[in-house]
Amino acid sequence: MHNQVALSLKSNYALFSPCPTKPLPNPRLSPSISRRNFYYYSILKCKGIEIPAPKQSLNSLSFSNGSVEDDRSKSVVVKDIDVATIGNLCVDIVLNVPKLPPKPLIEREAYMDELSKSPPDKKYWEAGGNCNMAIAAARLGLRVLTVGHVGDEIYGRFLLDVLCDEGIGMVEMKEPNDVIDSLSAGYETLLCWVLVDPLQKHGFCSRADFIEEPAFNWMSTLSIKAKMAIKRSKIIFCNGYGFDELSPRLLMSALDYAVEVGTSVFFDPGPRGKSLNSGTPEERKALDKYLRMSDVLLLTSEEAESLTGTEDPILAGQELLRKGTRTKWVIIKMGPKGSILITPSSISCAPSFKVNVIDTVGCGDSFVAAIAFGFIHKLPLVYTLTIANAVGAATAMGCGAGRNVAKLKQVTDLLKGSNLNEDDKFWEELLKEHSGDKETALLTNVVLNGHDNQLQCTSLQKVVCEVLPKLECAEAINQVGAC
Questions:
Q1: CA 387 to CA 141: how far, in whole Å?
Q2: Collapsing DSSP states into helix, strand and coil, what is residue 343?
Q3: Angle, alpha carbons 214-219-224 (nearest 5°)
Q4: What share of the chain is helix, strand, coil (3-state, %, to 5)?
Q5: CA separation for the pair 340, 367 (Å, rounded)
Q6: Averaged over 420-425, what is the pLDDT?
Q7: Which of 146, 289, 359, 418 has the fewest CB atoms within 10 Å, i.e. the most exposed one?
Q8: pLDDT at residue 198 is higher than 60
Q9: What is the separation of C-alpha 72 from the centre of its chain, rounded to a whole number of angstroms?
């Protein structure tokens, strides 16, 4: 029998692969695996799930008595996970309130303490943070893990149940020697209060807002289990909110290890990018490292401007590319206008879809999931943006994130509707300064042929014809998995 180590998935169920060279199936993508026979592909364990992986399959890592040793002679581990999210696992408590919490910190803390006196009804709970991206990715047929920490209480168990229902595993990030009182607030699952006023404006608060150190600052090193998850993943995704939970040093170690083992890194600084850029020396160092070392950067136009000082989103993206040492794509999210994908040799643009917007929470996270889908499947860049815009728009049509992010049928219906929010004047003015520099592509509703001054127009009809069969196949299999 092979010597084995165990990758522990803190979930009621996790897919079991007895052979490390055989990719882990996603229950949503495997026709032979429905919910009723999912059990036969699973190992049930009260405190977590172990996925054995033979020691021989780990490149540069061997495990002996819990230690990690360099071993270059070992064969390369198969990357059987598509995406692993790093940190930012929380439970959203979504409440309608007459008015949003006050801005002064002391008053906000008192406001949150009042909310926290007793657990709200479970109908107001939702998986939040990186769960949004993970769920959206799983619904697109990707094999997904979340790497982070949740406590052993009602909120943590709720979060694990939600992830399990979506076919997503959870890898505990802490090491056994990370000592903390399990009854203390610092060990509990992070809660984020999502407050919605009568005008549908949102306010957010969590205990991380009122402490100087990250919520899980007691985590000192990247666990062996977390390293194995990173190594087996094609992509890891981290966002700026991860700094609310995990120390900059720990997040940098995840980045360094991903680079070492050939895992692509996606980073979205989000609104936290601005505060990190003016934060502690360690925060600034970590932000700079993620901006330089990530394969794919995702930012809104406002976030790109705040980090570069450049108002033009294309110039801002190109500056981030120049500063990056490994950066392949910079994606600028333009809200209702659409999105732009910039590479060293090209600029790709896609208008958004016209939808009835109900709630924008989770749109950016689900957008990232679709970018990962295109990256993994090596889709043409405009195709990738089109799917991402559709997934983000479909999420905006619902209320809240978590389990309310876009379902695949909503995405395919939106693509079939072919209702682009075209703004020819906006794109013409934006691209006229750049169309001669790089190969430039623009998604349009109109079927056009040929090039015009290096501007290649790609019709939505063509994109839909080519990507819809892939998505509809995944949708059909998802329906089987839900039986």
A1: 13
A2: coil
A3: 140
A4: 40, 20, 40
A5: 12
A6: 89
A7: 418
A8: yes
A9: 31
* Cα 130 versus chain centre, distance: 5
Q: Which residue has the tokens 């998935």?
A: 9
Instruction: State how far the Cα of 72 lies from the Cα of 171, in Å rounded to an integer.
Output: 25
- Kindly state the tokens that stand for 442: 């623009």
In the beta sheet, which residues pair with residue 458?
443
Token pair for 133: 């991206």
Q: How far is it between the farthest Cα atoms of the chain?
A: 67
**What are the strands of the beta sheet with 125-129, ordered from one edge?**
125-129, 89-96, 190-196, 202-206
Residue 76 has φ and ψ, to the nearest 5°, of: -70, 135
Do 320 and 312 meet the contact criterion of CB atoms below 8 Å apart?
no
CA atoms 70, 71, 72, 77: torsion sign: negative
Q: What is the pLDDT of residues 388-399, one digit of tens each?
A: 999 999 999 987
Task: Specify whether the CB–CB gap between 169 and 195 falls below 8 A.
Answer: no
pTM, to two decimals: 0.83
What would the 3-class secondary structure string for 413-453 be?
HHHHHCCECCCHHHHHHHHCCCCCCCEEEEEECCCCCCEEC
